[in-house]
Automatic annotation (TrEMBL):
Gene3D superfamilies: NADP-dependent oxidoreductase domain. Residues 31-267 form the NADP-dependent oxidoreductase domain. It comes from the Bacteria. Transmembrane segments: none annotated. SUPFAM superfamilies: NAD(P)-linked oxidoreductase. Pfam families: Aldo_ket_red (PF00248). PROSITE patterns: ALDOKETO_REDUCTASE_1 (PS00798), ALDOKETO_REDUCTASE_2 (PS00062), ALDOKETO_REDUCTASE_3 (PS00063). This is Aldo/keto reductase.
Length: 280
């Protein structure tokens, strides 16, 4: 299991992806975001996750350039993810959206490019474009986000290349048991967005009790739970002390009983949209 913030898992195409990264959802373009990325890289983070719809790819790119310059790291030591938005889905549209994202980021390639949401009728053409980007060597790995089991099954009926990752809402109130089992059987790596349920779990009494027993914060307990379930996690923060705290989850382990207690909190409750019923 993950021993450090730089531990990686090998995806089904052989590419190594960090278990832990920085999410930047709802962080606006600007100096705060640039500093957050610099801080994260300084703290040992090697994975940054953004998306076209976040509207912050330019600042993410700026942060990456500054972080590389001051750390002495090279581009290939970082793992950068972005996503194609619903309005840009389709074959030609996706190819164009990828180039737009690269231009905003100021990068030559992405490590991972994801379909952001499973828009009915658009998935297969979009995936064909993703496969072309991959086969042409433009991107290191391709995957999906917010796909349920039936979306994955449908995609894989026509796909030449299996998704490497499915990034979904995952936290103690939404444990996604069926999806996790399916992903494991298919060798598709699950990745958690909103692992802390946008802060809504930080005063949960069961989690507080477990946190106290380990001398850790509730956030650290949840992030450790993700990792012990074999789920990549990308908590969002712009504050240096929080970026550091979130990453301090490699010096302890949750017991089987801790894991069971947290799993039992499941309510199938979402903070984000339902992948079977969204209108964007």
């Amino acid at each position: 299991m993950t021993q450090s913030i730089q531990s990686r898992t090998t995806l089904n195409n052989g590419i190594a992806m960090p278990w832990f990264g920085l999410g930047v959802f709802k962080v606006e373009e600007g100096e705060e975001l640039v500093q957050a990325i610099r801080s994260a890289v300084k703290r040992g983070y090697r994975s940054i996750d953004t998306a076209a719809i976040y509207g912050n790819e330019a600042s993410v790119g700026q942060g990456i350039r500054e972080a590389l310059a001051e750390s002495g790291l090279t581009r290939d030591q970082l793992f950068i993810t972005s996503k194609v938005w619903t309005a840009d889905m389709g074959y030609e549209e996706t190819l164009a959206a990828y180039e737009t994202s690269l231009a905003k980021l100021g990068l030559d390639y992405l490590d991972l490019y994801l379909i952001h949401w499973p828009v009915a009728g658009k998935i297969n053409d979009t995936w064909r474009a993703m496969e072309k980007l991959y086969q042409d060597g433009r991107v290191k790995a391709i995957g999906v986000s917010n796909f349920q089991v039936h979306h994955l099954e449908s995609l894989m009926e026509t796909a030449e290349i299996k998704p490497v990752v499915n990034q979904v809402e995952f936290h103690p109130l939404l444990v996604q048991e069926e999806l996790r089992a399916f992903a494991k059987a298919q060798d598709i790596q699950l990745e958690a967005w909103s692992p802390l349920m946008q802060g809504m779990l930080l005063d949960h009494p069961v989690l507080q009790t477990i946190a106290e027993s380990h001398g850790k914060s509730v956030a650290q307990i949840i992030l450790r739970w993700d990792l012990q379930h074999g789920v990549i996690t990308i908590p969002k923060s712009t504050k240096d002390h929080r970026i550091a705290e979130n990453a301090d989850v490699f010096d302890f382990a949750l017991s089987d009983e801790d894991m069971r207690r947290i799993d039992a909190l499941n309510e199938n409750r979402r903070v984000g949209p339902d992948p079977d019923n969204f209108d964007f």
